[in-house]
Design goal:
The complex is a heterotrimer.
Chain A (H helix, E strand, L loop, with lengths): L5 E6 L3 H6 L7 E5 L9 H14 L6 E5 L7 H5 L6 E6 L5 H18 L6 E6 L2 H5 L1 H6 L3 E6 L1 H8 L8 H16 L3 E4 L8 H14 L3 E4 L3 H9 L4 H20 L5 E2 L2 E2 L2 H16 L7
Helix pairs in contact in A: 9-10, 11-12
Chain B lengths: L1 E2 L5 E2 L2 E2 L2 E2 L30 E2 L2 H7 L7 E4 L9 H11 L5 E5 L9 H6 L3 E4 L6 H7 L7 E3 L2 H9 L7 E6 L1 E2 L5 E2 L14 H6 L2 E6 L19 E4 L20 H17 L7 E4 L3 H17 L3 E8 L1 H8 L3 E9 L2 H9 L3 E3 L2 H5 L13 E4 L3 E3 L4 E2 L15 H7 L2 E5 L3 E2 L2 E2 L1 E2 L14 E3 L4 E3 L4 H7 L6 E2 L1 H12 L7 E10 L5 E8 L7
Parallel strand pairs in B: 5-14, 6-7, 6-10, 7-8, 9-29, 10-13, 13-14, 15-16, 15-19, 16-17, 17-18, 19-22, 20-25, 22-26, 27-28
Antiparallel strand pairs in B: 1-2, 3-4, 11-12, 20-21, 23-24, 26-27, 29-30
Helix pairs in contact in B: 7-8, 8-9
Chain C lengths: L1 E2 L3 E4 L6 E6 L4 E6 L3 H18 L5 E7 L4 H15 E2 L2
Parallel strand pairs in C: 4-5
Antiparallel strand pairs in C: 1-6, 2-3, 3-5
The chains are: A alpha/beta, B alpha/beta, C alpha+beta.
């Protein structure tokens, strides 16, 4: 599974931010044609992003586009996709049907590019209805991650954003559970206070512990902090090495069940260890023995 | 014409001035005795306090063709140069050579005096409007641009003879003891006037805060001052805090600052006893801040910092992570306060700070410094004086001094600005030679000078984006496209003098450029 | 494309360009840029290339550039043309 610890939103009509995005090395860049662009400028932003995809080095991370909803410009937005784009981010998804509509539209543009079925969908859930439909959305075609949009969700339920986050607890838990049950990723919302990097770190650690695989960033300075929060501790790395080591020993010896320190290493444990190693390598803190 | 050590063509002579071609950063050594001003007698009953600038100028004997000098401590808040030159103009004195340390946009009114021939030559850093004027070749002789250290060298060697030095002071007594530390216009150290006070034929102290004798501290003492005059205002210290004294908020520039810290971390230099040059400029200030965080994290105490002082620096000092500060320019109130109140925060002369022809300058003791550039080339040569279009728009400051002295010199620049690459094949003009530059830190990668194999080894396997300078150059070009290069005329409008008195480059007039009237 | 009405795209801001286009005879171009001695020729060429790619033969174009890289300039010309023109 792809590493999506950080997803940096880049306003689609901002040349400077587009051309400097790669400097910050986020796991994913989201070229935003939706909320970041006013209605009068959707067309020029689309052209700017189209040319960015074709002429700008956007770095080594995944490249995605946050498109407008189908019927509100989304169909034109996906026409600019080229071989560099691995996913689209769909905003305000409320049902599997929303996703299916977009999936059909994607087929039309993928075929001429010889990329049939390749473009993934990251479905952003930003409403009560969307949260309750999360299990269905997670199983919809092409959906490789469920993302959460806290601002719009909180408005939708008539709640109020708080530092403790009670108002979004159910939604986030539901999204994580739905995503993991469907075998896909769960991606958390933005942390809006761009000046509070300590707060971002703590919130991201909490988010990681809830089961999220990453979160969005709205400012480049947030990327490194998010990565730090997703960097495993030396103890976790050591434990993971031991687990992998025990599994390899077991494989060599041909033993079915493997244990470590008296505890069984089952599939979820093995998966967790692999994930920790992946995160450690991405953070540059994994040393091969 | 002679090719100097950085491959620039230097004429043997320009406007009556013989030029020594730059031979290498440490090759041109002193061979003379120090110049000396006339020995004076000012007796018990003689009065130094005069009633007006005009009286001071008259008594000082300023005549056509002479040289006048000023410090730049009030930067864009300076009020001394304009009012002194206005007064000189009204007295009918003409054809002066201006030997200021630096000019700023606030000095734009000087252009009228340049047009009228009150001032016909400039030997000092120029900035903005006056730079544009000088770039058109409108002065009698090319502008001579020197570093801070180089200027003090030139004054001491009498290569820059000052007839009348005007010392703006925020506190002075009637006998000429003066400083910049106290008073409503306080600006901090008087570092850059100290050499003028020692060597100028006449020294006039200009203050807006006359106090009872004796005024202390004695940044410049009475034995060097001929006349004292009180004016309404010497300027506005708020003008010191210009764009160059705000920490950058640009994410890409902050990234560059982070790369500097990362390289420092691996360099092995940051340990107890470490020292650094603190500067102004958005990226430099970010580096200072991050450095402070690093010193605190690793519990390392620096032996000293050389400033350019700002609150960012004094905060680290007050927390105990820097033992001493040497100060040649204060950029904000916090640093002036620290200078006043803390005996380990010390005013030093520009002479001691950076002159290469002394018994040892402070820059020689500095471990690391972080500098800017308008351009950097494939040989690591740096341009700070002109832009890629050939316009003469900036002084050298302490650039080549810090670069020559420090063990690890960084230049921090974005890969390109607008449509123009900053990494170029050959800089338009050379200010600082590549041999003095160790690391170029850009937003997309870090280039280490090939002559620093020791550093390259330390950075291998660290995960930092180490690139060759050629790779950075190619990348810049692939993004911006190749801009045109300006065409130049034979006429020389500027001489870039290296800190040792040799000529590292000359600035030619841009073909067809006329000063927009 | 045939230019049938005035339109503009982009903005005169850092790293961007404001491109204004209106009907005209032949290609009549006016350029305002920073560091003209260094970049004017390149900008002219890029604008002409972008117009040519869209088969615009007649237009009055005004470009106010503030550090727009080639890909940005091309985008703004394209967007202005799409707003100002029709397929002919």
């Amino acid at each position: 599974m792809k590493l999506r610890r950080s997803r940096l939103f880049i306003p689609g009509n901002n040349p400077r931010m587009i051309q400097t995005a790669k400097v910050f090395r986020p796991d994913m860049i989201i070229l935003d044609l939706e909320d970041a662009v006013g209605p009068a400028n959707k067309d020029e932003a689309r052209i700017l992003v189209k040319n960015a995809l074709r002429h700008v080095d956007l770095g080594c991370g995944e490249i995605s586009i946050r498109v407008n909803p189908v019927g509100e410009g989304g169909e034109e937005d996906i026409r600019i996709i080229n071989e560099k784009v691995s996913a689209i981010v769909m905003p305000k998804v409320e049902s599997a049907k929303d996703v299916e509509e977009m999936a059909n539209a994607l087929q039309g543009i993928e075929d001429p590019m010889d990329r049939l079925g390749e473009i993934e969908i990251i479905a952003t859930i930003e409403s009560a209805r969307g949260v309750l439909n999360a299990p269905d959305i997670a199983r919809a075609p092409r959906v490789s991650a469920l993302a959460f949009g806290a601002e719009d969700y909180t408005k939708d339920i008539g709640g109020e954003r708080t530092k403790e986050g009670y108002e979004t607890l159910f939604a986030r838990s539901m999204i994580v559970a739905a995503a993991k049950a469907a075998g896909i990723q769960a991606l958390d919302t933005v942390y809006s206070d761009v000046k509070d990097l300590e707060g971002l770190y703590e919130d991201t650690v909490r988010s990681r512990k809830m089961g999220f695989d990453g979160r969005s960033a709205i400012h480049p300075s947030q990327v490194d902090v998010i990565h730090r929060a997703y960097t495993p501790s030396p103890e976790e790395i050591e434990w993971s090495k031991q687990v992998i080591g025990a599994l390899e020993e077991g494989k060599k010896a041909g033993t079915g069940a493997v244990s470590l320190n008296g505890k069984m290493i089952d599939k979820p444990v093995a998966k967790r260890a692999e994930r920790i190693i992946t995160l450690a390598k991405a953070a540059g803190v994994f040393k091969e023995e | 014409m002679v090719l100097n050590a950085v491959g620039r063509e230097i004429p043997e002579e320009v406007a009556g001035r013989r030029l020594i071609p730059f031979a290498g950063a440490f090759k041109t050594l002193p061979h003379r005795r120090k110049a000396a001003p006339p020995i004076k007698h000012i007796g018990r009953d003689d009065k130094k306090l005069v009633r007006s600038l005009e009286e001071a100028i008259r008594k000082a004997g300023l005549k056509n063709g002479m040289t006048i000098s000023f410090h730049h401590h009030l930067r864009n808040g300076d009020g001394v140069i304009n009012q002194v030159v206005d007064t000189i103009a009204s007295m009918g004195i003409r054809d002066l050579r201006l030997a200021q340390v630096a000019l700023f946009p606030v000095h734009e009114p000087l252009i009228e005096h340049l047009k009228k021939g009150v001032i016909t030559r400039i030997e000092g850093s120029i900035n903005g409007p006056v730079g544009l004027y000088a770039s058109a070749g409108k002065l009698k002789a090319p502008v001579v641009l020197r570093s801070h250290g180089g200027r003090t060298r030139a004054v001491e060697a009498d290569d820059l003879h000052v007839d009348v030095a005007f010392v703006g002071a925020s506190m002075a007594d009637e006998y000429g003891n003066c400083n910049g530390m106290y008073g409503p216009s306080a600006f901090g150290p008087l570092s850059y006037s100290m050499i003028d006070a020692q060597y100028a034929d006449k020294v006039i102290c200009v203050t807006d805060n006359l106090v009872e004798y004796p005024a202390t501290p004695l940044s410049i003492d009475q034995s060097h001052v001929d006349y004292v005059v009180e004016v309404d205002s010497i300027g506005d210290p708020k003008g010191i805090e210009s764009g160059t004294t705000k920490i950058t908020s640009s994410p890409t520039r902050l990234k560059i600052a982070q790369y500097v810290i990362d390289v420092l971390r691996y360099s092995g230099l940051v340990k107890d006893g470490f020292s650094f040059q603190a500067g102004a400029g958005g990226i430099s200030l970010a580096v200072v801040k991050y450095l402070g965080d690093m010193l605190e994290e690793e519990d390392v105490v620096a032996s000293f910092a050389m400033g350019g002082t700002t609150k960012f620096l004094t905060d680290i000092f007050e927390k105990g992570y820097i033992k001493k500060i040497f100060d040649a320019q204060a950029f904000d109130l916090a640093s002036i306060d620290s200078l006043r109140n803390n005996p380990d925060h010390v005013e030093v002369s520009a002479y001691m700070y950076a002159n290469p022809h002394t018994r040892g300058a402070i820059v020689n003791r500095v471990d690391t410094g972080f500098l800017g550039a308008t351009e950097v080339d494939l040989d690591f040569n740096v341009n700070v004086n002109t832009h890629s279009d050939g316009m003469m728009l900036h002084g050298t400051g302490g650039h080549s001094d810090v670069a020559a002295g420090s063990k690890l010199t960084f230049v921090t620049v974005p890969l390109y600005r607008g449509r123009l690459p900053i990494i170029v094949d050959k800089v338009t003009n050379v200010t600082t030679p590549g041999e003095s530059i160790d690391v170029i830190a850009t937003d997309v990668g870090i280039a280490v000078n090939p002559n620093r194999k020791d550093l390259m080894e330390k950075l291998e396997g660290t995960g930092l984006p180490i690139r060759t300078i050629d790779e950075l150059y190619e990348e810049a070009l692939s993004i911006t496209g190749k801009p045109e290069k300006p065409e130049f005329e034979d006429e020389i409008v500027g001489i870039i003098e290296y800190r040792d008195g040799s000529t590292i480059d000359v600035i030619h007039k841009v073909k067809g450029y006329e000063y927009p009237e | 494309m045939k230019i049938v009405q005035p339109a503009s795209a982009g903005k005169y801001g850092r790293d961007d360009a404001l491109v204004e286009i209106q009907p005209g005879r032949g290609i009549d171009m006016e350029i305002k840029c920073s560091a003209p001695s260094l970049v004017m020729k390149n900008i002219e060429r890029e604008v002409l290339e972008a117009l040519d790619e869209m088969e615009v033969r007649d237009a009055k174009v005004s470009v106010s550039e503030k550090g727009a890289l080639p890909w940005v300039l091309k985008s703004r010309v394209e967007a202005a043309v799409m707003r100002a023109g029709v397929n002919d």
